[in-house]
Amino acid sequence: MTEELKKTPLYQVHLAAGARMVPFGGWCMPLQYRDILEEHRAVRERAGLFDVSHMGEIMVRGAGAESLIQGVVTNDVQAMSDGQVIYSPMCNENGGVLDDLLVYRLEKGSYLLVVNASNKDRDLEWIIGHAAKDTVVEDISEKTALLALQGPRAADILRTLAVFEPDTMGYYRFVRGEVAGVGCLVSRTGYTGEDGFEIYLNSGDAPGVWRALLEAGEDHGLAPAGLGARDTLRLEASLPLYGHELNEKITPLEAGLGRFVKLEKGYFFGREALMRQQGKLARRLAGLTMEDRGVPRAGYQVTVNREQIGWITSGGYTPTLDKYLAMAYLSSGIMPGDRVAVIIRGKEYSAAVLSLPLYKRPPKK
Amino acid sequence: MILDGLLYSPEHEWMKVEGKTARVGITHYAQEALGSVVFIELPEVGAKVEAGEALGVVESVKAASDYYCPVSGTVTAVNSQLFDAPELLNEDPYGRGWIAEVEMSEPEQMEKLLDAAGYQELLAGEDK
Fold first, then answer.
1. DSSP category for residue A220
2. A35 and B39 in contact by Cβ < 8 A?
3. A345 to chain B: which residues are within 8 Å by CB?
4. Most CB contacts within 10 A, which of A2, A167, A169, A190?
5. What fold does the segment set B7-118 form as a domain?
6. What does the pLDDT look like over A117-156, one tens digit per residue?
7. Is the confidence at residue B55, as pLDDT, over 60?
8. B61·A293 Cβ contact <8 A
9. CATH number of the domain at A282-354, please?
10. Domain residues of chain A, as ranges?
11. A157-185: per-residue pLDDT in tens?
């Protein structure tokens, strides 16, 4: 790995575990420890532990914090209570997505924003650029590590190390308390489609907590998991990845994220453009399942009668469903059940259109 | 893991020769570098191939890579088990993961390939 790539606090731990490292968003990250499909299955069946410390964390504090965030994100921040997390796109004036992020309300006037690694610098500039004097915006990414514990056994594993009872946390809520003797912020959130927790802590504490979690999870079949499995899991769960389903030229409405866009809340960047687009989408994010055997991948064209009607944003073999699936932007007239062609190395491969999500985890018994 | 009695190419294919027919696959080193194979594009039976030409594409979770034919000839058989079970390439690359059989048109091309010891040396150089 070249010297220019940034390293998380767990870099040495990953090397010692024999992880295959790859560059991602300017960081040197573990792609896999043993095998991507194996790690994917571990998360769906038991639990997996991810190092996602490359993500950006931004504190926004002050009397103007709420209105600042309310003005830059599409979801409604004003309706939040202490201990709540919301997911939201953040748009430019044209309604194009600058980033998608989580907003944590610590208390009135104090928010934590969690943003994509590749967009952190730009997000920071955008937010600071719109901040009034009564608001302080602080980048705490470097001193903050982030671990994601995901899977049906996640709560059982966390319970052995946390001072709090994990099940007191509802989905998209968070608490602050000790895990393995270390002060953490823990939310019931994730990017895999399974139950799970995201654990924010000081960088220096990360290796110790990582090891403690792996040890506590051994009897539960916990496996370390890398970015490869993170991608196949989120593809099945049909969660958007910035740079694939989202970019500055795509609106949250086209991406199927309308439920996170609260047009009625009042002014925010992109509101007018999104209002104009409502009910008039030229393209929409949909799912595809291959009928001819082939691997659909990001960037591949989608055609009907030899004419391009869309493109694939993410795709591949999905182990839980045991199918070759993709997400794609398709012209609005195309409906679930329709047949389309995916162009793979110049040849047509038949696929059927599906509605999203591709996978939904079975309800807890 | 390298087997004796096989010939190897620098592109990490192996060949088992019986008379004029060569059975071709990818080596243990290749399958490990690829990771889990999720799909392989097989050549058509009857297709004519040139030494060094791509026989098809093997796809892992993250990437698609060409794989090559070490010798010139005509494809006489392909391992259709690989359609439903591409993981055979990872599990048993020299056995049930064989890819295709080629009737060689220029058997003297075999002299350019490596034996087990030669391939071992190649790998030792590659890992540096």
1. G
2. no
3. 57
4. A190
5. OB fold (Dihydrolipoamide Acetyltransferase, E2P) (2.40.50)
6. 999 999 999 999 999 999 999 999 999 999 999 999 999 9
7. yes
8. no
9. 2.40.30.110
10. 6-51+143-236, 56-136, 282-354
11. 999 999 999 999 999 999 999 999 999 99
Whether residues B61 and A345 touch (CB distance < 8 A) is answered with no
- The answer to whether A324 touches A294, Cβ cutoff 8 Å, is yes
Give the closest of A37, A297, A324 to B36, CB-based: A37
The yes-or-no verdict on residue A190 having pLDDT over 80 is: yes
* CB distance A135 to A68 below 8 Å: yes
Tokens encoding A105: 């309300």
Cα–Cα dist A64/A85, whole Å: 19
* Minimum distance, in Å, between the CA of residue B108 and any CA atom of chain A: 33
Out of A36, A316, A324, closest to residue B35 by CB:
A36
Shortest CA gap B47–chain A (Å): 18
Backbone Cα Rg of chain A? 21
State whether residue B85 sits within 8 Å of chain A by CB.
no
Q: Pairing relation of β-strands A283-290 and A222-224?
A: unpaired
Tell me if residue A13 falls in helix, strand or coil. helix
What's the pTM? Answer: 0.94
Question: Over the stretch B66-94, which tens digit does the pLDDT of each residue have?
Answer: 999 999 999 999 999 999 999 999 999 99
Q: What is the mean pLDDT of residues A16-32?
A: 95
Q: What residues of B are in contact with residue A294 (Cβ under 8 Å)? A: 39
* B 58-77 residues with CB < 8 A to A: 59, 61-62, 64
**3-class SS of residue A213:** helix
What is this model's ipTM? 0.89
CA B111 from centroid of its chain's CA atoms? 17
Q: Long-range contact list for B52-55, CB < 8 A, 24+ apart? A: B55/B24, B55/B99, B55/B100
* CATH fold for the domain made of A6-51+143-236: Gyrase A; domain 2 (3.30.1360)
